[in-house]
């Protein structure tokens, strides 16, 4: 199937062109693969019957599936054996130019991880993994650390954290723009997932210059109950 790298299929495109993936099923209008680096599955097919056949054929209890087609995940949501764990809008940087920003990114250290653990409550294992792989950054504005951000191995903006006393200045969108520039420099397409009900996060994405993809993506997991 033909992929749209700067749209809803940005994660699929990245997995197939930038990383180690295994295509499990493919048809003229659908694709099912596993990202071997991230350990997640990606399903892009409109026909729910085909989706259920593919998922049954490759079923394993621990699988986490990113489902792109809304017609598909809405059907799976009510199918026995599956449950939806999250639903989100996808944003993507579709411009050819690199964004301007005043923020300078520096690789995060163990001290930064400790600060983040105390300030934000983010999972320690995930923060350490991102730091060790060079994907966790401290953002500096004129020599002052104003927050942190991370990027996924496929180009996703993983999270943004701005210190409470540094908010309300527009620095969050500046920090994200710095992450976007870093991801672009790595030859990847920046994208992210945002809860539809998080108005603050949606506004930040608009200010950062991200484009909103039509429709929603959903995360599905086997329901063994």
Question: Care to describe what's here?
Answer:
This protein is of the alpha+beta class. It is 32% helix and 32% strand. It has seven helices and eleven strands. The strands form two sheets. Strands 1-2-3-4-11-5-10 form a seven-stranded mixed beta sheet, sandwiched between helices. Helix 6 crosses helix 7. The longest helix is centred in the C-terminal third of the chain and has 15 residues. The radius of gyration is 18 Å and the shape is globular.
Spell out the key features of this protein:
single chain, 225 residues, alpha+beta, seven-stranded mixed beta sheet, 32% strand
> How would you spell out the order of helices and strands?
HEEEHEHEEHHEEEHEHE
Residue ranges: pLDDT <50 for 5 or more in a row? Answer: none
Number of strand elements? 11
Q: Order of strands side by side in the largest beta sheet?
A: 1-2-3-4-11-5-10
Can you give the helix content as a percent range? 25-40%
Structure classification: alpha+beta
Instruction: Identify the quaternary structure here.
Output: single chain
- The residue-averaged pLDDT reads 92
- Give the termini separation: 35 Å
In percent, how much strand structure appears in the residues? Answer: 25-35%
What does the overall shape look like? globular
Query: If helices are DSSP runs of H or I spanning 4 or more residues, what is the number of helices?
Result: 7
Offer a concise description of the structure.
The protein has 225 residues and is α+β, with helices and mostly antiparallel strands.
Ordered list of secondary-structure elements with their pairings:
Blueprint: H1 10-18, E1 21-27, E2 30-35, E3 40-45, H2 48-57, E4 65-67, H3 70-77, E5 82-92, E6 104-107, H4 110-120, H5 124-132, E7 136-141, E8 144-151, E9 157-162, H6 171-185, E10 191-194, H7 199-208, E11 211-222
Parallel strand pairs: 3-4
Antiparallel strand pairs: 1-2, 2-3, 4-11, 5-10, 5-11, 6-7, 7-8, 8-9
